[in-house]
Give the backbone structure.
Amino acid sequence: MDVRGSRARTVTLVLAAWLLGAGAAAAQPSYEFWPEIDTWLRLSPAWRLSLFVPISKNLETHYREGNFIPQVDYAFGTLKFHGRLMDEDLARNLRLFLLRGGYLGGRSLGDDAEEYSEHTVFAELHVRHPLKGGILFSHRLRSDLRWLGDDSPEFSKRWRYRLMMEREFDAGRVSLVPYANVEAYYDSRYDTVNRVRAIAGSSVAWSWRTAIEVNGTYQYDSHSSTKEILALSVILHLFFDASHTP
């Protein structure tokens, strides 16, 4: 019996059940569309730079928010798993650990940031475990240092923990990577786990330079005026490799 895989599935089911129970008690959800462009530059097998530009739009009120997220990744450790992740350009021998650091700048669009403004410095640790059937299971622990507002920014901290499963299917030059994840957020402003987010989707790649990712998100936030969000994300991934020769 795969004890590690069994524990991972148990924790995932518990978080999913908590999420569904919270959602059942919430009000009418808000429907949103989240388009995004992610650009990746691989410098070496260990180092990678990326830039995310996501936008969120409420489909009922047409309120919009935009973010600018530069990041740097460092991957290390031996992992007996060869494949492709949803944010990888090519199949390769994956690393056991990944460290990521970056900055998030966000603001509401069209109102001079009167409703929302954020500056965040964050750090992430990813740990990957292969399971039977070619499934890759991963943990992500993320720490956010946040400054909300422009005139007198409010400082707060947030801890986020995510469980994720993904698997690659390939047919010729086309790679399909379906995935699902559940993430819990602890916010120091409320001293509690106030948000849980569940995402399911897939990325499709037909060349090493380009991939399209589509997913659906359910989010519950006990301390937000909008407690439930249902969102559709469409993400264009653009990959570049400093050492790649076409």
The first strand starts at residue 30 and ends at 42. The chain has one domain: 3-241. The mean pLDDT is 89.
